[in-house]
Amino acid sequence: MKRKHVLPFGAELLSQGDTRFRLWAPKASSVELELSASGDLIRMAAREQGWFEVETAARAGTQYRFKIDGEHRVPDPASRLVAGLGAQVVEERPRN
């Protein structure tokens, strides 16, 4: 039997092929999602209590990390899969 534990943060693969990314960064004024393959930076929306969130087209296997306040590139602390050079990878675990 496979067990699934849904976390309220990290990368969550959605059924339509997009992924929701969430990061808790209470002292940050801005957070961007950096998709490693394209180098694109996608601004994440600030939510209540220090959360940042964005949904974007990112399939399983997409490598990513976060950029905080335009300066600091950080890994996803909720990631369960890490590629070379410290990039996180979206896992193939769609939410039901």
Descriptive report:
This protein is mainly beta and 96 residues long. The chain has a single domain (10-89), classed as Immunoglobulins (Immunoglobulin-like, Sandwich), CATH 2.60.40.10. The chain is 0% helix and 41% strand. The chain contains no helices and nine strands. It has strands at residues 10-13, 18-24, 31-35, 41-43, 45-46, 51-57, 63-68, 72-74, 88-89. Strands 3, 4, 7, 8 and 9 form a five-stranded antiparallel β-sheet that branches. A hairpin with a 5-residue loop joins β3 and β4. The mean pLDDT is 83.
SSE blueprint:
Layout: E1 10-13, E2 18-24, E3 31-35, E4 41-43, E5 45-46, E6 51-57, E7 63-68, E8 72-74, E9 88-89
Antiparallel strand pairs: 1-2, 2-6, 3-4, 3-7, 5-6, 7-8, 7-9
The gyration radius over C-alpha positions equals: 13 Å
Low-confidence blocks of residues: none
Q: What is the tally of beta strands?
A: 9
Sum up the overall morphology in one term: globular
List the defining traits of the structure above.
96 residues, Immunoglobulin-like, five-stranded antiparallel β-sheet, four-stranded antiparallel β-sheet, globular
